[in-house]
Amino acid sequence: MNKNRIAKDVLKKDDLIVITGAGGFIAGALTRYFHDQGFTRIRAVDKKPLPKWYQRVEGVESLCMDLSEYDNCVRAVEGATEVYNLAADMGGMGFIERFRVECLRSILINTHMIEAAYRAGVDRYFFSSSACAYNVTLQQDPNVRALKESDAYPAMAERGYGWEKLMSEMFCQEYWAERGLKTAIARFHNVYGPFGTWDGGREKAPAAICRKVIEAKDTGKHEITIWGDGHQTRSFMYIDDCVKGIDMIMHCDALIATPINLGSSELISINTLVSLAEEIGGVKLERHYDLNAPRGVAGRNSDNTFILQVLGWEPKTPFREGLAKTYAWIEQQYYNRKAGKHTVQE
Ligand code: NAD
After folding, report:
1. Whose CB among 44, 60, 148, 278 lies 3.0–4.6 Å from 303's, allowing a Cys bridge?
2. Is 161 among the residues known to form the active site?
3. In terms of pTM, does the model score above 0.85?
């Protein structure tokens, strides 16, 4: 196997890297990752006002711009060597089932960003797709067969959010086929970790469950409400694996314009997630199940055959380990908020 190339092998230290959605969770972590590797010119862009960014990395040019406007995309990518487009209006199941129009409108970001990047002559363009692009009819059982890349077609993606991702993937494929823009497309499966959304309605299951356990412990009300029957299954990828995977996928020529899973293959039920969070918190809670709450597909896992074959690597952080770090971080946020200090949240 050839050594996997990453940004450090391909870019000069002062090549301009543009990262969008950088006021949010994953792109914020990606910004820190490149900064820590010694890249000196990083431009981070998000529509959120700067004080609301989850992470602000010192020495990084940070711009507040709405990338659903084409002119702002042109400004964002000016002079860039590489573009990582992670900006999207999104959240956990509670958000994407309720706000389908907002999710669909991310198509404006993605169509404008890729056109602007192409016109600016960037070397490579990354797009963050999602496991929600997969055909939902293959995800109706908690004991799912893991999803492989070809399972996106025949298409029957998640309403709203998933269809937008699938369409934006297609833009990446056609900009390569017709115009020669090197694009990379990763289908993320549930990402979690410190500096992620943990409250406010856009948070995902691992953060929501940690917060509920912490709250129950703190208030002494030892009960928890779980969305759905708790048998739904998912795989969860730790943030450090996600940023490393983005770097490898972006710089692998065998993966140009080729959607690939970026996710863990450790399947976890929501009930197990609750048990793990209880164990970490050292508490046992009475469980209530809200069967009317949004719960998404019954089961979803990442088939990592392709990524292992191409990169000889897959996200491997054990869920128990990543969850403990996430729990500790959310606990700190929770008590900071209680003390009236600054916190990261929607
Ligand atoms: P996030 O919500 O934390 O970050 C997205 C950021 O995009 C936000 O800060 C938001 O303000 C910004 N944004 C939204 N609209 C914008 C606009 N018009 N102009 C500029 N910025 C805008 O989400 P995240 O979890 O970091 O997700 C990053 C990417 O990864 C998204 O494309 C998302 O769809 C994808 N993804 C995430 C997951 C996951 O589990 N977190 C799973 C699959 C795919």
Report:
1. 148
2. yes
3. yes
